[in-house]
Amino acid sequence: MLRYLIHRALLMIPTLLGVAILVFFMLRLMPGDPVQMMLDGANVSKEVVEAERARLGLDQPIYLQFIKWLGSALTGDFGYSIWTGKPVLHEIAIRLELSLEVAVLATMLAVALALPLGTLSAIFKDTWIDHTIRVFSIAGLAVPSFWLGMIIILGLLTMFSWIPPLTFTPFMQDPKANLLQLIWPALAVGYRYSAVSTRMMRSSILEVLQEDYIRTARAKGVYERLVISRHALRNALLPVITVIGLEFAFLIGGLVVTEQVFNLNGIGKLFVQAIARGDYTLLQALVLLVSVVFVLVNFVIDMLYAVFDPRIRYR
Amino acid sequence: MSALAPALTYAVPARRHPVVQFILHQPLGAGGLVFIVIMALAAIFAPWVTPYDPLTVDYGSMLAAPSWQHWMGTDSFGRDMLTRVIYGARTALAVGFLASFVGSTAGAIIGVVSAYFGGKIDMIIQGFMDILLSFPIIVLALTVVAMLGQNIVFGVDINLIIAISIPMVPRVGRVVRASALAIRELPYIDAARAAGFTNTRIIFRHMVPNVVAPYLIMLTAYVAQAILSEASLSFLGLGVTEPTASWGLMLSGAAADFYQQAPWMIIFPGLAISLAVFAFNLFGDSLRDWLDPKIKI
After folding, report:
1. For range B98-116, the mean pLDDT
2. Residue A113's Cα: distance from chain center in Å?
3. Cα–Cα distance list, A75 to A12, A78, A88, A294 (Å)
4. Whole-number Å distance between alpha carbons of B135 and A256
5. Distance of alpha carbon B250 from alpha carbon B40, whole angstroms
6. What is the per-residue pLDDT across A258-273, written as a single tens digit (0 to 9) for each?
7. A269: how many CB neighbours lie within 10 A of its CB?
8. Could you give the CA distance from residue A120 to residue A117 in angstroms, rounded to a whole number?
9. Measured between CB atoms, which of B139, B146, B224 is closest to A253?
């Protein structure tokens, strides 16, 4: 197990390095000069612009810039936001709590819906129960989360005159206000999320039910309830865990549009702002963060597989 | 002999046209296809089927509620919503098909090449695909948009198409590679190699035609994804720009300011996105079940 863990951990390094290289060089190709954007067309002399470039290290050759950036990034220093002048890590940290909380709430919602619905759908395959659940889940794939968010706001506005609060209330400060604010965006993205997981749950159970050991269990007279809960569910869960893990990783940075709709100052909104302002120190840290989360979640999923399915460890 | 006679007269069912077979076996998918065709016809013939001009501003009928004159109401410029929703289908389908075609084709070629050569080349390509896969679709598309800016050719923003199609490449590539790996081991590829054909010829003449099923399935599925991406990017103001009609763009800006006064500005464009994506998903799912049920989209 330990050997597998180390081997798998080492495999992350080239991917992460590749991500870092790609992000860094891609963003250097962005049109528009960040220094010019920062000075906002103010009439300053050429010397001031040059001094500013030197201060930000933009006058050095690009590979040197990369090595310097990577070196400090490894020690947790991502430099300063070109726009606000504050440390990039600080800008991200103050918004991470919000995005993380929405992602966790949406995951809880998705799991709570997907496991029972997917199981029911598989057990009652081709009955009206299955059809209803499948329509529910295929619709969930079609409705854009941000539009569902707008419809939720419209409904709340009409019924309770509720408007999305302008400021974020941390959970520790006022749990009720916090949940009341974040449950709606979580619901908006959670619908799609649960739809994806429900579909995976259904097809995974249907696949497992074809296995020999299910037939054996039934043949030896195990109650159908136990066949499903002890034999089928356990083995069907792994692919569902993968889907849930990947969707969770995507939610950390992929809430871009929904955060805009609910006026939430999270990672996604920061991302759009960074693009609009050509703030690439911030942008490269954000993109890197999102993909690091993704690679790490993938790693954790693989470890879970190895724990649940011993065959994988010994390959 | 006489005992076999009845079996010999057994009526062989007439071979139906593949399209008829598809409709019979996959009624839901056929429904999706019908909706797609109607939408495409409306989009192509938009100037003839729409009651108004999509760009004409009419301050006399700003924010008018749905009525017999304006079935879906009007927006904050007094433009007819129904007209703009139909013209929006033009944008969505054009961007959707183009982006999906570019992304799936690139992905399929890369997948086949990767599988055909195997070894180091396969490893390097897959390594690069893994890197691309570690970005959420919308994050990658946004970054590419930011990097490339706009580049409009014949009224279509080429860079937007590229931005939407890039995230598809590794996803399609992975699926097609898996199918191509199985094909690579078949005797006719060996035969082609033994005959001394070039790699290019074997890849394009012998391997590519045999991964058409997964290619078509992914192509259809990713039209839906492309429509969603276009709507999201346009909503953020980084995709299609005013005054072009786009469903995502219609939902942004003024629509959010008039939640209560003019809910139709929010409801109809979103419904259009959902229905379009729903139709493509239905059709794509059925196409998958029909052509190759083992493929995971």
Report:
1. 92
2. 19
3. 18, 9, 13, 20
4. 13
5. 20
6. 888 888 888 888 888 8
7. 21
8. 5
9. B139
Cα A59 from chain centroid?
35
Q: Which residues of A touch B146 (CB under 8 A)?
A: 27, 30, 275, 283
Q: Tokens 């959902």 belong to which residue?
A: B274
The β-bridge partners of B74 are B80
Burial class of residue A238 in the structure, from the number of CB atoms within 10 Å of its CB (0-12 exposed, 13-18 middle, 19+ buried): middle
CB burial string B243-260: b at 16+ within 10 A, e below: ebbbbbbbbbeebbebbe
- Indicate yes or no: CB of A294 within 8 angstroms of CB of B270: no
pTM value is 0.84
Nearest CB among A144, A250, A298 relative to B270 is that of A144
Select from B35, B126, B143, B274 the residue whose CB has the most chain A CBs within 10 Å, as the one to mutate to test that interface.
B143
| Percentage with pLDDT > 90 across chain A | 4
Instruction: Write out the H or E segment, with its range, that includes residue B1.
Output: none
Chain A CB contacts of B228 below 8 Å: 144
Residue among A31, A158, A256 whose CB faces B138 most closely: A256
CB contact under 8 A, B236 and A294: no
CA distance B202 to chain A (A): 31
Task: Report which residue type is found at A307.
Answer: V
Q: Which amino acid is at B48?
A: W
pLDDT exceeds 70 at position A41:
no
CA A28/CA A30 separation, integer angstroms:
5
Q: What is the CA radius of gyration of chain A?
A: 24
Nearest to B146 among A30, A146, A151 (CB): A30
Instruction: Evaluate if residue B14 carries a pLDDT over 80.
Output: no
Q: Among B100, B141, B136, which Cα is nearest to B226's?
A: B100
Residue by residue, DSSP assigns B225-246 as HHHHHHHHHHHTTSSS-TTS--
pLDDT at A13: 85
Residues in B closer than 8 angstroms to A250, CB to CB, are: 136-137
| Residue B251 in contact with partner chain A when CB distance is under 8 A | yes
Encoded tokens for A59: 């006058």
**How far are the Cα atoms of A159, B33, B89, B276, B288 from residue B280, in angstroms, in the given order?**
34, 8, 13, 6, 12
- Match 């590679």 to its residue by tokens: B177
Among A24, A147, A159, the strongest candidate for a mutation testing the B interface, having the largest count of B CBs within 10 A, is A147
Q: Which residues of A touch B128 (CB under 8 A)?
A: 18
d(CA B217, CA A267): 34
Phi/psi of residue B152, each to 5°?
-90, 120
The residue whose two tokens read 């954790």 is A300
Identity of the amino acid at B88: G
pLDDT above 70 coverage of chain A, percent: 89
Which of B127, B136, B260 lies closest to A290 in CB terms? Answer: B136
Look-up of token digits 């918004």: A95
